Amino acid sequence: MLLGDLDNVIKMNLQLLAGEGDEGNEEDPGDNGSDGGGEEVKTYTQEELDALLNDAKKDLPSDEELTKFKEWQESQKTESQKQNEKLETEIKAREEAEERASRLEAKVECLSKGVASESVDDVITLAKTMVTNTLTIDKAIDKVLEKYPSFKTSGTETPGFKIGGSGDKEKPQDNIKDALAMAFGNK
Predict the structure, then answer these.
(1) Helices and strands (DSSP H and E) totals, the chain
(2) Can you tell me the mean pLDDT for 130-156?
């Protein structure tokens, strides 16, 4: 390096890079612990903030101007652009309807295969991850039920009330007197 190039060298405060030692931790005696560099923090009253906000709102277009601009923007579009936008919205609506229909079909399929009603969404979510070109949703549901049989209902019992039922699954009632006594809390 030539001596003429020393002017282009960045001067560094090497004390910032020094390790923790007695020499490197000296504070500037004129600092007094302020980090702001002498800048004073400006505080605003609510009235000043409201005035600033109203000034900013003045620059925004009104609702009427905004609707006129949107109408003008729409009038500038070509016929093909309008048709493309309409086609895109129709395609999106069709895809949403197809997705909803396939989800409902999967729910019906799950219920017909004996899946507990509170587990239907879980089974469908697991089955959808398995669906490919060769594996349909029906077969995927079967695989999920094979792997996780706990999603199926317990069997013959249906939810709801039983007329004349004892309410006690372990002890069937032998006669009508025992059933009445249990129903009225005598036993």
Answers:
(1) 6, 0
(2) 87
Q: Map tokens 């039983």 to a residue.
A: 162
Q: At what angle do helices 120-130 and 79-112 cross, to 10 degrees?
A: 120
Tokens linked to 116:
């507990």
Residue closest to 121 by CA, chosen among 104, 135, 138, 134: 104
Distance CA 28, CA 31 (A): 5
Which residue's structure tokens are 């309807």? 97
What is the distance between the alpha carbons of residues 126 and 98, in angstroms, rounded to a whole number? 19
Average pLDDT across the chain, whole number = 77
Structure tokens of 87? 């086609």
Nearest to 61 by CA among 45, 48, 43, 73: 73
Higher pLDDT, 34 or 85: 85
17: which DSSP letter? T
Query: How far apart are the C-alpha atoms of 45 and 51, rounded to whole Å?
Result: 10
pLDDT tens per residue, range 100-123? 999 999 999 998 888 988 999 999
Tens-digit pLDDT profile for residues 61-81: 888 888 998 888 888 888 888
DSSP letter for 181, please: H
Alpha carbon distances (Å) from 63 to 60, 67, 185: 9, 6, 71
**Tokens coding 17:** 């890079």
